[in-house]
Amino acid sequence: MPEISPDDLKNMSPEQIAELQKQNCIFCHIASGKVASKKVFEDEKCVGVLDINPANPGHVLLMPKEHYAIMPMMPDDIIGHMFMVAKAISHACLRAFRVQGTNIFVANGVAAGQKAQHFMIHIIPRKEGDGVSSFAMPKKKVTEEQLKEIEKALRQRINYVFGIKDNEPIVLGKPAEEKEEPEKEEKKEEKREYEDVKPAKKDVPQKKDSDKKESGDEEVEAEIIEEEKTKKKEDDEDEKETKSEIDLDKIARLLGGNLGLK
Amino acid sequence: MNKECTYCQRIAEGKGIIYSDSKAVAMLNDAPSVYGHILVMPREHYPIIEQVPDFIIDHIFRIANKISVAVFEALRVQGTNMIVNNGVSAGQDAAHFMIHVLPRREGDGLSMQWVPKQLSEEEMSTVELQLKEQTKTIGSFQKEQEAPIELKKEKERIKVIEGEENYLVKRIRKIP
Prior knowledge:
The complex is a heterodimer.
Chain A: H1 6-11, H2 14-24, H3 26-32, E1 39-42, E2 46-50, E3 60-64, H4 76-97, E4 101-108, E5 121-126, H5 144-162, H6 176-201, H7 205-210, H8 212-243, H9 248-259
Antiparallel strand pairs in A: 1-2, 2-3, 3-5, 4-5
Chain B: H1 6-13, E1 17-20, E2 24-28, E3 38-42, H2 54-75, E4 79-86, E5 99-104, H3 121-135, H4 167-174
Antiparallel strand pairs in B: 1-2, 2-3, 3-5, 4-5
């Protein structure tokens, strides 16, 4: 690679500088496969490799294939996708190493401890007494006034970022989703009734002949029900798969137990 | 909502909440590690990340990112950390899944650095194989379920022919 003087840098366009950063980014080379690494996961948007300086065995770096320096520069869909993958890798760590927890860690900016010029998500398997203490959260005391002051400063900016009008009150209490729940239950009950009645109907041939139109509708409905059933089966199978080896409930229960919760 | 969970209660009360929508809530931590320590969490009660549905993960991290952007600008900091402590052994201390968003400044007293563990080439290969075996299945993500299909509200009625006993009653009589 040719040497670039500071004068050259000044004359370069932002696009050219971005291109230069990509060329010099070791993690871009790892993602594209030019530099050898221990890849544990890869799809079209991101790649997960083992950290060569791990905090714990199984420390994974999940990074986007595109070059983004920090998280705020990334498009929303890649952020969403990568964290869904991060969740799955965290689950994979629990199963593979039989650990009881994981840390998911992101650093934006040098002040936050970011070392590479390429955004990445750290996934670190954790065991009781493994000596990793960097993610412990010290608890400091604050006064109500201080909290209000921060809240005021943040609210305005957050509203701006999300495009919420400043005077709009925050919606509290029951969100729309919760209200829908009782309806769903009713529908389920109806369906059950319907299915119960149906077999009895077969015993009456007269009725079938008399209402042919209805039976046509019912066939469609029967199909829908069957579709739903198959969907349910698939869901159940998925659940079985994920719950196969490691007991997530146990990890969750442990958490509750420490707090005196159920 | 879990009645015994302090965070579910705080969501219901609405104290110190700085952002809220139908799935996610962001609030200030009242025992902060740094100035402006924010917690982003789902409205629903899930103890650990593996129990949170994928579409909520998708949504909640987008929100966390936007909050991190707002934090950069509002508090004029030089960096942010996003941390999920998942499980007691990882330092989680509340049974409600949450993302910590920490505004960071040079010399704020926090260190998120770790001492690297030395693993031999052989150990690294074993770890790689073990993990690869488990990441094979990653690929399909759970989407938000659409509203259930509406079924006919009318109930099926059984015709009663006068003078004749209903066939259902007949069948019941047959049962010994």
